[in-house]
UniProtKB/TrEMBL annotation:
Protein name per the record: Phosphonate ABC transporter, permease protein PhnE
Stretches that traverse the bilayer: 7-28, 68-91, 112-137, 196-215, 227-247
Any GO molecular function: ABC-type phosphonate transporter activity
Xref: PANTHER family: ABC TRANSPORT SYSTEM PERMEASE PROTEIN P69, PHOSPHONATES TRANSPORT SYSTEM PERMEASE PROTEIN
PROSITE patterns in the record: ABC_TM1
Membrane topology recorded in Swiss-Prot or TrEMBL: Multi-pass membrane protein
Compartments it resides in: Cell membrane
InterPro entries: MetI-like (IPR000515), MetI-like_sf (IPR035906), PhnE/PtxC (IPR005769)
Taxonomic source organism: Candidatus Methanoperedens nitratireducens
Length: 257
Protein backbone atom coordinates (compact mmCIF):
# COMPACT_ATOMS: atom_id res chain seq x y z
CA UNK A 1 0.00 0.00 0.00
CA UNK A 2 2.83 2.38 0.85
CA UNK A 3 4.44 1.68 -2.50
CA UNK A 4 1.15 2.46 -4.27
CA UNK A 5 0.80 5.77 -2.44
CA UNK A 6 4.43 6.59 -3.17
CA UNK A 7 3.94 5.87 -6.87
CA UNK A 8 0.72 7.91 -6.97
CA UNK A 9 2.42 10.85 -5.24
CA UNK A 10 5.35 10.73 -7.66
CA UNK A 11 2.95 10.64 -10.62
CA UNK A 12 1.06 13.66 -9.27
CA UNK A 13 4.28 15.62 -8.71
CA UNK A 14 5.61 14.71 -12.16
CA UNK A 15 2.30 15.64 -13.81
CA UNK A 16 2.25 18.93 -11.92
CA UNK A 17 5.75 19.79 -13.13
CA UNK A 18 4.82 18.96 -16.74
CA UNK A 19 1.64 21.05 -16.57
CA UNK A 20 3.53 23.98 -15.04
CA UNK A 21 6.20 23.87 -17.74
CA UNK A 22 3.58 23.55 -20.48
CA UNK A 23 1.68 26.54 -19.11
CA UNK A 24 4.84 28.63 -18.74
CA UNK A 25 5.63 28.33 -22.45
CA UNK A 26 2.07 29.04 -23.60
CA UNK A 27 0.61 25.61 -24.34
CA UNK A 28 -2.69 26.58 -22.72
CA UNK A 29 -2.96 30.03 -24.35
CA UNK A 30 -5.90 29.17 -26.61
CA UNK A 31 -5.97 32.52 -28.43
CA UNK A 32 -2.28 32.32 -29.22
CA UNK A 33 -2.53 28.71 -30.38
CA UNK A 34 -5.50 29.54 -32.60
CA UNK A 35 -3.69 32.45 -34.22
CA UNK A 36 -0.60 30.31 -34.67
CA UNK A 37 -2.47 27.50 -36.41
CA UNK A 38 -4.19 30.02 -38.67
CA UNK A 39 -0.83 31.59 -39.57
CA UNK A 40 0.60 28.15 -40.32
CA UNK A 41 -2.15 27.46 -42.86
CA UNK A 42 -1.57 30.85 -44.50
CA UNK A 43 2.18 30.21 -44.62
CA UNK A 44 1.65 26.71 -46.04
CA UNK A 45 -0.56 28.14 -48.79
CA UNK A 46 2.17 30.65 -49.71
CA UNK A 47 4.73 27.85 -50.13
CA UNK A 48 3.09 26.37 -53.23
CA UNK A 49 3.59 25.91 -56.08
CA UNK A 50 7.41 25.68 -55.91
CA UNK A 51 9.31 28.19 -58.04
CA UNK A 52 11.56 25.97 -60.18
CA UNK A 53 13.30 28.90 -61.89
CA UNK A 54 15.96 28.88 -59.16
CA UNK A 55 16.74 25.16 -59.45
CA UNK A 56 20.06 25.57 -61.26
CA UNK A 57 21.34 28.13 -58.76
CA UNK A 58 20.25 25.96 -55.84
CA UNK A 59 21.93 22.86 -57.29
CA UNK A 60 25.28 24.68 -57.17
CA UNK A 61 24.61 25.71 -53.59
CA UNK A 62 23.64 22.12 -52.69
CA UNK A 63 26.99 20.97 -54.08
CA UNK A 64 28.70 23.56 -51.90
CA UNK A 65 26.73 22.27 -48.91
CA UNK A 66 27.91 18.70 -49.57
CA UNK A 67 31.51 19.90 -49.97
CA UNK A 68 31.31 21.69 -46.63
CA UNK A 69 29.91 18.61 -44.91
CA UNK A 70 32.47 16.28 -46.49
CA UNK A 71 35.49 18.45 -45.69
CA UNK A 72 34.21 19.22 -42.20
CA UNK A 73 33.75 15.51 -41.51
CA UNK A 74 37.18 14.56 -42.88
CA UNK A 75 38.99 17.28 -40.93
CA UNK A 76 37.05 16.38 -37.80
CA UNK A 77 37.88 12.69 -38.21
CA UNK A 78 41.60 13.37 -38.66
CA UNK A 79 41.69 15.27 -35.37
CA UNK A 80 39.18 13.06 -33.53
CA UNK A 81 41.07 9.79 -33.92
CA UNK A 82 44.21 10.81 -31.95
CA UNK A 83 42.12 12.78 -29.45
CA UNK A 84 39.95 9.71 -28.96
CA UNK A 85 43.06 7.67 -28.19
CA UNK A 86 44.20 10.30 -25.69
CA UNK A 87 40.76 10.29 -24.09
CA UNK A 88 40.69 6.52 -23.57
CA UNK A 89 41.75 5.65 -20.02
CA UNK A 90 42.97 2.18 -20.96
CA UNK A 91 45.41 3.64 -23.50
CA UNK A 92 46.66 7.03 -22.31
CA UNK A 93 46.13 6.75 -18.54
CA UNK A 94 43.77 8.58 -16.22
CA UNK A 95 45.55 11.95 -16.04
CA UNK A 96 45.94 12.50 -19.79
CA UNK A 97 42.47 11.10 -20.35
CA UNK A 98 40.92 13.51 -17.83
CA UNK A 99 42.57 16.56 -19.41
CA UNK A 100 41.60 15.44 -22.92
CA UNK A 101 37.99 14.81 -21.91
CA UNK A 102 37.76 18.21 -20.27
CA UNK A 103 39.03 19.83 -23.46
CA UNK A 104 36.60 17.86 -25.63
CA UNK A 105 33.74 18.63 -23.27
CA UNK A 106 34.46 22.33 -23.74
CA UNK A 107 34.30 21.91 -27.51
CA UNK A 108 30.99 20.08 -27.34
CA UNK A 109 29.33 22.80 -25.29
CA UNK A 110 29.49 25.14 -28.29
CA UNK A 111 27.07 24.14 -31.11
CA UNK A 112 28.15 24.08 -34.75
CA UNK A 113 26.05 27.17 -35.49
CA UNK A 114 27.95 29.23 -32.93
CA UNK A 115 31.29 27.93 -34.22
CA UNK A 116 30.21 29.02 -37.70
CA UNK A 117 29.37 32.52 -36.42
CA UNK A 118 32.79 32.76 -34.77
CA UNK A 119 34.53 31.76 -38.00
CA UNK A 120 32.34 34.09 -40.10
CA UNK A 121 33.55 36.96 -37.92
CA UNK A 122 37.14 35.78 -38.36
CA UNK A 123 37.18 34.79 -42.05
CA UNK A 124 34.14 36.49 -43.57
CA UNK A 125 31.18 35.00 -45.44
CA UNK A 126 31.42 31.82 -47.50
CA UNK A 127 31.89 28.06 -47.16
CA UNK A 128 35.22 28.24 -45.26
CA UNK A 129 33.73 29.28 -41.89
CA UNK A 130 30.96 26.72 -42.31
CA UNK A 131 33.47 23.96 -43.01
CA UNK A 132 35.59 24.92 -40.00
CA UNK A 133 32.50 25.08 -37.78
CA UNK A 134 31.45 21.57 -38.82
CA UNK A 135 35.02 20.31 -38.37
CA UNK A 136 35.30 21.57 -34.78
CA UNK A 137 31.84 20.23 -33.95
CA UNK A 138 32.77 16.85 -35.46
CA UNK A 139 35.96 16.71 -33.39
CA UNK A 140 34.04 17.11 -30.15
CA UNK A 141 31.51 14.38 -30.82
CA UNK A 142 33.58 11.87 -32.79
CA UNK A 143 36.33 11.98 -30.16
CA UNK A 144 33.85 11.13 -27.41
CA UNK A 145 32.37 8.25 -29.39
CA UNK A 146 35.82 6.97 -30.27
CA UNK A 147 37.32 6.97 -26.79
CA UNK A 148 34.26 5.10 -25.57
CA UNK A 149 34.82 2.53 -28.35
CA UNK A 150 38.51 2.21 -27.48
CA UNK A 151 37.70 1.66 -23.83
CA UNK A 152 35.33 -1.15 -24.85
CA UNK A 153 38.23 -3.19 -26.26
CA UNK A 154 38.66 -6.42 -24.29
CA UNK A 155 41.12 -5.69 -21.49
CA UNK A 156 42.39 -9.28 -21.53
CA UNK A 157 43.57 -8.82 -25.12
CA UNK A 158 45.39 -5.61 -24.18
CA UNK A 159 47.00 -7.27 -21.16
CA UNK A 160 48.14 -10.18 -23.33
CA UNK A 161 49.87 -8.04 -25.96
CA UNK A 162 51.42 -5.82 -23.29
CA UNK A 163 52.82 -8.89 -21.54
CA UNK A 164 54.94 -9.72 -24.59
CA UNK A 165 56.43 -6.21 -24.61
CA UNK A 166 54.68 -4.79 -27.67
CA UNK A 167 55.07 -1.02 -28.13
CA UNK A 168 52.13 1.30 -27.56
CA UNK A 169 51.99 2.32 -31.24
CA UNK A 170 51.83 -1.32 -32.35
CA UNK A 171 49.21 -2.00 -29.71
CA UNK A 172 47.07 0.78 -31.17
CA UNK A 173 47.71 -0.27 -34.77
CA UNK A 174 47.24 -4.02 -34.47
CA UNK A 175 44.79 -4.33 -31.57
CA UNK A 176 42.86 -1.19 -30.62
CA UNK A 177 42.04 0.14 -34.09
CA UNK A 178 41.09 -3.23 -35.67
CA UNK A 179 38.89 -4.10 -32.69
CA UNK A 180 37.13 -0.72 -32.93
CA UNK A 181 37.04 -0.29 -36.72
CA UNK A 182 33.37 -1.14 -37.20
CA UNK A 183 32.37 1.45 -34.63
CA UNK A 184 34.81 4.03 -36.02
CA UNK A 185 33.44 3.80 -39.56
CA UNK A 186 29.82 3.59 -38.47
CA UNK A 187 30.12 6.81 -36.46
CA UNK A 188 32.07 8.48 -39.28
CA UNK A 189 29.25 7.85 -41.76
CA UNK A 190 26.67 9.02 -39.25
CA UNK A 191 28.65 12.22 -38.65
CA UNK A 192 28.77 12.92 -42.39
CA UNK A 193 24.99 12.46 -42.67
CA UNK A 194 24.49 14.78 -39.70
CA UNK A 195 26.85 17.40 -41.13
CA UNK A 196 24.99 17.46 -44.45
CA UNK A 197 21.82 18.39 -42.58
CA UNK A 198 23.62 20.86 -40.32
CA UNK A 199 25.46 22.59 -43.15
CA UNK A 200 22.14 23.71 -44.61
CA UNK A 201 21.39 25.56 -41.37
CA UNK A 202 24.85 27.14 -41.17
CA UNK A 203 24.07 29.13 -44.29
CA UNK A 204 21.58 31.11 -42.20
CA UNK A 205 24.54 32.93 -40.62
CA UNK A 206 26.36 33.47 -43.91
CA UNK A 207 28.48 30.32 -43.76
CA UNK A 208 27.73 29.29 -47.34
CA UNK A 209 25.65 26.50 -48.80
CA UNK A 210 21.96 26.34 -49.59
CA UNK A 211 21.02 27.79 -46.20
CA UNK A 212 22.31 31.16 -47.41
CA UNK A 213 19.61 31.18 -50.09
CA UNK A 214 16.98 29.86 -47.70
CA UNK A 215 17.39 32.75 -45.27
CA UNK A 216 17.36 35.23 -48.17
CA UNK A 217 14.10 33.78 -49.50
CA UNK A 218 12.56 34.00 -46.02
CA UNK A 219 13.64 37.62 -45.57
CA UNK A 220 12.30 38.55 -49.02
CA UNK A 221 9.04 36.59 -48.50
CA UNK A 222 9.86 34.44 -51.55
CA UNK A 223 8.29 31.35 -50.03
CA UNK A 224 7.78 29.47 -53.30
CA UNK A 225 11.52 29.61 -53.92
CA UNK A 226 12.05 28.51 -50.33
CA UNK A 227 9.94 25.43 -51.06
CA UNK A 228 12.21 24.51 -53.97
CA UNK A 229 15.28 24.87 -51.73
CA UNK A 230 13.72 22.72 -49.00
CA UNK A 231 12.66 20.00 -51.44
CA UNK A 232 16.11 19.86 -53.04
CA UNK A 233 17.75 19.67 -49.62
CA UNK A 234 15.38 16.91 -48.56
CA UNK A 235 16.08 14.91 -51.72
CA UNK A 236 19.85 15.21 -51.35
CA UNK A 237 19.77 14.30 -47.65
CA UNK A 238 17.64 11.21 -48.34
CA UNK A 239 19.97 10.10 -51.15
CA UNK A 240 23.07 10.57 -49.00
CA UNK A 241 21.47 8.78 -46.06
CA UNK A 242 20.55 5.84 -48.28
CA UNK A 243 23.95 5.59 -49.99
CA UNK A 244 25.97 5.95 -46.79
CA UNK A 245 23.77 3.36 -45.04
CA UNK A 246 24.40 0.86 -47.85
CA UNK A 247 28.15 1.51 -47.80
CA UNK A 248 28.23 1.17 -44.03
CA UNK A 249 26.20 -2.06 -44.05
CA UNK A 250 28.31 -3.56 -46.83
CA UNK A 251 31.55 -2.78 -45.01
CA UNK A 252 30.27 -4.09 -41.69
CA UNK A 253 29.05 -7.28 -43.39
CA UNK A 254 32.44 -7.88 -45.00
CA UNK A 255 34.38 -7.14 -41.83
CA UNK A 256 32.26 -9.59 -39.85
CA UNK A 257 33.58 -12.55 -41.84
Amino acid sequence: MNHSREGFLQAVIFSGIILYLANSIGFFDIDRLTRGVSNLFIFAADLFPPDLSVTETLLYSILETIQMALMGTILGFIAALPLGLLGARNISGRNISAVTRLFLGGIRTIPALLWAIIFVVAFGLGPLPGTLGLAIYSVGYLSKLYYEAFEAVDQEILDAVRAIGISRLKEIRFVVLPESMNHILSQLFFMFEYNVRSSAILGFVGAGGIGFYMINYIQLFQYQRLTTAVLLTLAVVLIIDSVSARIRDRFLTRSSY
